[in-house]
Every structure is written in C-alpha cells, then in structure tokens.
Amino acid sequence: MKTVINEQSRRNFAAQVESMLHDKLAKCYQCGKCSAGCPVNFEMDYTPNQIIKMTELGMEDTVLNSKTIWLCVSCNTCSTRCPKGFEVTGIMDVLREIAEKKGVTSKVEKEVQMFHEVFLDNVKSNGRIFELELVGKYKLKTRHLFRDMFLAPKMLEKGKLKMHGEKIADLNQIAKIFKDFE
Amino acid sequence: MKLAYYPGCSLKGTSFEYEVSLLKILEAMNIEIKEIPDWNCCGASAAHSINHNLAIALPARNLAIAEKDGCESVLAPCAACSNRLKNADYELKNDDILKKKITDSLEMPYDSKMSINNMLEFLIGTVGKDKIKSMVKKPLSGLKVASYYGCLLVRPPKVMQFDDPENPVTMDELVALTGAEPVDYSFKTECCGAINSLSKPDVVMALTGNVLYDIKKHGADLVVVACPLCHSNLDVRQREIERKYDEKLGLPVLFITELLGLSFGIDPKDLAIDGHMVAADKVLKKIDQNI
C-alpha cells in the first residue's frame, strides 16, 4: 500500500472533513465499538474506525474510493453506541458528499451512488418520488434490467405500483432549492 | 390544535396500505388531520447521503408551509420522513447560519416551534392509551405479535428523542392494548438494509433474513412495523429470502395502524390488508375464531 502523506494536504483534508462534520476526528480513540455493531461490516473493505483514522491521516484517495462509505446504510447504530459521542454516521455522509462533489465515482459500489443520484433527479423533476419512473431510470442506468422484475406482476396486482406519479404545483421552488444547494 | 399530516411518497405508492389504514382508524376515532398543502419529498436517505444542505432544505419547506398553515404539530407516519423532518428541525435550531441560508432560499420564515411526531409518538402521545383502549371492540387475544422498530424511529437518540434506542417498547405497548401478546426477541432495532434494497439486494436479504428468522424462532404469528421501508424489505422480499435460505417464514407483516384497526373491529379489506405480498389469511382466521 502506498501511503505517502504530505503534511499540508493531510491537514487540509482533515480540516475540510471536520468543518463539514462539526466534530473533531481526534475524539475517536479507536475502540472499535462502531465497527463491532455495524450491520454491514461483513461487506466493507475498511471498518468504520479505520475510515476515521485514515481520514485523520489524510488518506483521501483511499477513503473516497472505499466500498465502506457507500455500503453504510446510515442506521446510526455506530453513533448511538460511540463512547465518545463521535459522529460516525455523519462522517460517512461527509465523505460521500466530498466524493460526489469531486466527481469520484465508486468503482465497486457505483450502483449505490447511482441510486442516490437518480433518486434526487426524480425529486428535482417531480417534487415527489414517482416510484415506477425512479426504478425504471435506475435500471436503465445500471443496466440491471431484469433484476427484481419477478416482483413486478404481484406488486401490480396488489396495487403497489402506481402508473402515474404526482407532481407538486410549486416546482419552481423545488428548482430554486436545488439551484441554491446542489 | 390543528394537526398537520405529512404523508410522504411511500404512503402514496408502494405502502398505500399504511395510509388507507391510518385514515380509517383516525375516522373511527374522530380525529382530524390536514395534509400539508403541496408537500414535497423529504429527500429521504439519498439527500443526506450526498448533499447535507439539500437534506435540510427539502424537509424545511414542508415544515415552513405547515407552520404558515397555522399548525403546531405534524404527523409523519413514515419513519424515514419523520427522521428527516426531525433532523432538519434540529439543524435549523442549532445552526443559525444554515437556517438563514435556507429560509432566504425558501423565502419563508420558520420559527422552529413545530412538534414532529412519528406514528408511535402520535398514537401514544396525541391520541393516548385510554382512547385507544376504549376503541378495542375485538380483542386480539391469543395472537403473538413481534414489533419491529428498525433504525429510523429511535436513532440518532439526541435528535429523535423517542423511546430507548436499544430496547424500545412503545409499539409493544400498543400491541398489548389490542389484547395481543407482544413477543420479545433480539433484533428489534437491527437494520433491515433500508435504502440499499435495490442497489444491494443480497446485503438487504441477509439483514432482513436475520430479523425475520429471529422473529420466527420466538414464535410470533405476525410482525408489526411503523415504517414503509421496513415493510417493503420484510414483506416484499420475504419469498426471496425463504428461497435463498431454504426455510419457510410465512410471517405476515402488518402496519401498526392495521393491527389497531383489526382490534377496533374494522373490516380487513377496509384496512387494505390484502395489499401485502405475504397473505395474512391465517392470522385473520385466528382473530375470527376468537369471537
């Protein structure tokens, strides 16, 4: 593993994360309680406590390209149990946001990232989620056209899949929110 | 007091059963709610995952509209929606700079005086145990019910301010009011995999499988939930989980509003119980045999 860390870039990255997180990385004393209770730890390449330490060490490329940040389901078990009250779930949000803004596309977990993007596009164009359109666009983007399709007939029969979405009246305000904060 | 109602997208789509049954029991109890005019999606997990400010601004619009509409309290039956509304409210209370940015963008003020309630808080706090108990016409005695809370109702505790984050009991108390027997088990607040249902189905099936098999092991007849995401994973994916692990589950998953409705003596069809993927016929038969 290549770990050449320039002190200035280490400081910059750690400071950027801390300012977005409103929390201090040094609070974490690596007890590992977050990782022990994490429901998706079995799929991760780095445990949550490793992500915290690597962020503190300025290993930007490694954390932004990790599977971990995209596998985290934000269940908040880690933050709830952290003996130091560190925002463990929060750091995953911050790292995903930095990755997204820098255009870092996850190589292995790109589908999770794509789902979030397609979801927000749907909110932007309708103001509300139109589930059928969301699933359709997500499938086209990921090319997993047939995965989960066996569920569709019964879901239609049960009335779970609506054929028409609702658009809100004040879409201009939604457009403004996206313009101001996207 | 005027009660605002924030249905959220799921209740108008895949989890329509939740809204149908909620409106039915409210009608039975004579409680009026008012849908927030022109509400928008709260951004759910997608927004906070990749854009913090958007994740606060989207729910803030709904809160500001409800406040303008003269409401002091809002009911958000979807656990994810109530979680996002509470998160937005918390941030707006604690971050003046962000609050100014957001209210400027919305061109609407927000006083942060709104009381935001998830389904369980609303039932226990606003409606009250006495009222619910007085409505029970058809006690569900002999029925073993596991309450599944998942993550978003109780965590993070500093923002949710609701029940115990590791061992919540509110839904079990509601179950007991119907005359059914609450089942104790280990996975009450373990995550079902939530939003990754479409993008990581294998992971979601492993997590949801853990929950369902533990419930089965503890002898429950059915599961109750107060979250559309939990419902989707536990109900819609259940057949697939049975196939994957080659072990039958056959656990109907009902919304808490449906269980209450049944104990009020409301027809299961009016509660949209036939809208679920796992049929609840056996459970309904058991209830009918009680009388």
- What is the count of helical runs of chain A? 11
CATH architecture heading of the largest domain in chain B: 3-Layer(aba) Sandwich
Global shape of chain B: globular
What is the string of SSEs of chain A from the N terminus onward?
HHHHHHHHHHH
Q: pLDDT under 50 segments of chain A (min length 5)?
A: none
Q: What number of domains of chain B?
A: 2
Rg of chain A (CA only) = 19 Å
Q: Under the CATH scheme, which class of the largest domain in chain B?
A: Alpha Beta
Q: What is the overall number of helices of chain B? A: 14
Shape of chain A: globular
Question: Low-confidence parts of chain B lasting 5 or more residues at pLDDT below 50?
Answer: none
Number of domains of chain A: 2
What is the topology, as strand order, of the major beta sheet of chain B?
Answer: 2-1-3-4
Structural class of chain B: alpha/beta
Radius of gyration of chain B: 19 Å
Structure, described:
- The complex is a heterodimer of chains A (182) and B (291).
- Chain A is mainly alpha-helical.
- Chain A has helices at 7-21, 33-37, 48-56, 60-64, 68-71, 77-81, 88-102, 110-126, 131-142, 152-157, 171-181.
- The model of chain A has no long low-confidence stretch (mean pLDDT 93).
- In chain B, the strands form two sheets. Chain B has a four-stranded parallel sheet with strand order 2-1-3-4. Chain B has a four-stranded parallel sheet with strand order 6-5-7-8, sandwiched between helices.
- The termini of chain B are far apart.
- The mean pLDDT of chain B is 96.
- With 291 residues, chain B is of the alpha/beta class.
- At the A-B interface, helix 6, helix 7, helix 8, helix 9 and helix 11 of A face helix 2, helix 3, helix 5 and helix 10 of B.
